[in-house]
Design brief:
transferase; 3 domains; Immunoglobulin-like; L,D-transpeptidase catalytic domain-like; peptidoglycan synthesis; Ig-like domain-containing protein; mainly beta; elongated; cell shape
Length: 431
């Protein structure tokens, strides 16, 4: 199945999504029961017949095996999947309801395929119901178990940006860090569903084997809610390594704040929702060498510190060597991983008139505090006028790549639409 099937061609079913008024039947695992709802004795049609794979009694199947339900002489009206894990606490993530299995029904209602993978180490019960033309219902129940994710082979999250509850700027990427290398990147990408109020095209890219980053084609529209559903339970990240927990991240995109800075002008111009907000006198890198040249390109604001000791030894210039420094600053906001910050530099008498910093953007105290208090993680700084170009992998320099360049390195090779229609491919393994 694909999450991009046209809505008119599919119906989705899951736990609690469809309720049927069925008469009670004595049904056993692997057996089908038929209940007639017809009152016309002249009606003589074949009962609906159901099949479910995996078959009942199957043990220790791979968690990324799809559940498939097929009906003959009728249409599928309900599918419920119950999963019980002995050590439930070890598999519950941030949002247990994500474990409620949904599926995609084909256009004529005769085949249902699970959307997501199964919990590792689970006892699984699948209950399917179908109805024939006469209104007779048939129910089939099958049970099987899934392979456990053994210690040392369980994929877990190490970090994510943003976090639930945060308000971020329009340039904010979604970054997911894993504790183990991921080789089956397409399956993992397809297991993470991004939904925004303003649906757009976006895509994942992997800065390294343990980090996945998502950005839309253009900046996010401001003032909207975004959710990230990580259906990681059962995904096979690499051979024999399975995700064990689902997670959900809910964050908000705030107003659109853009900083434009042409370095030779010694000023940074701030706009909010397209309107001029503030012009800040600055002093940028003196450009005696590449390191102390402020980089040109699209920067995204990252972490921030009220107080920070800036030490050149942390960026490869040891104490006592030419160009080394160690200075305490206030109101520091990071723009790269190579040491660039917007920060207070009361010691710099050239703010607004000359570029004499070690590559950072120096501000006076009042402007630095304003910048610190009024910007968000994910706000955009567009810098021009220097010979040093920001690398796309330096911090969150993802907007340095065109959309086509960004999309070309997605493992799926296709964009993910954030309108809720789903991910571009299957989360399941090869069958």
């Amino acid at each position: 199945m694909t999450g991009r099937t046209h809505p008119s061609a599919i119906r989705r079913f899951g736990i609690g999504l469809v309720t049927l008024a069925l008469a009670a039947t004595a049904c056993t695992s692997g057996g089908a029961e038929t209940q007639s709802n017809s009152t016309d004795p002249a009606v003589d049609v074949d009962s609906a017949a159901l099949t479910i794979t995996p078959e009942t009694g199957t043990e220790a199947i791979a968690p990324n095996t799809p559940i498939t339900v097929n009906a003959e002489n009728g249409t599928i009206s309900d599918v419920k999947v119950d999963q019980v894990v002995a050590d439930e606490a070890a598999t519950e993530g941030d949002d247990a309801p994500l474990y409620e299995m949904t599926g995609t029904l084909n256009g004529d209602g005769t085949e249902w395929v699970s959307d997501w993978n199964l919990k590792p180490g689970a006892e699984v019960t699948v209950t399917a119901t179908a109805e024939n033309e006469a209104g007779e219902t048939t129910e089939l129940v099958q049970e099987f178990t899934t392979e456990a994710a053994v210690p040392g082979r369980r994929l877990e999250l190490t970090h994510n940006f943003p976090t639930t509850g945060q308000t971020v700027g329009v340039g904010m990427p979604i970054i997911i860090g894993f504790d183990m290398p991921v080789t089956n990147k397409a399956q993992v990408e397809n297991s993470i569903k991004v939904v925004s109020e303003q649906g757009v095209a976006g895509s994942w890219r992997w800065p390294d084997d343990k980090t996945a980053a998502f950005r839309p084609e253009e900046y996010w529209d401001p003032y909207q809610q975004i959710s990230v559903e990580l259906h990681l339970a059962g995904v096979e990240a690499s051979e024999g390594v399975y995700g064990v927990s689902d997670h959900k991240i809910d964050f908000e995109v705030g107003r659109e704040l853009i900083v434009t800075m042409n370095v030779p002008d010694h000023e940074a111009v701030v706009t909010v929702d397209g309107e001029h907000e503030r012009t800040i006198p600055v002093s940028n890198g003196k450009a005696a060498r590449n390191f102390d040249t402020t980089s040109s390109g699209v920067h995204v604001l990252m972490e921030r510190y009220e107080h920070l000791t800036m030490d050149s030894s942390t960026v490869g210039i040891p104490e006592g060597t030419p160009g080394s420094y160690k200075v305490d600053v206030q109101y520091a906001v990071r723009t790269s991983n190579s040491g660039e910050f917007f920060h207070e530099a009361s010691y710099n008498g050239n703010i607004g008139s000359a570029n004499t910093s070690n590559g950072c953007t120096n501000m006076r105290m009042d402007d630095a505090k304003w910048f610190f208090d009024n910007t968000l993680m994910g706000d955009v700084v567009d810098t021009t006028g220097t010979a040093r170009v920001k690398e796309w992998y330096n911090g969150w320099g993802y907007w340095q790549l065109s959309w086509d360049e960004w999309l070309s390195e997605s493992a799926t090779g296709e964009p993910q639409l954030t309108d809720g229609s789903g991910t571009p491919g299957s989360v399941h393994g090869e069958q």
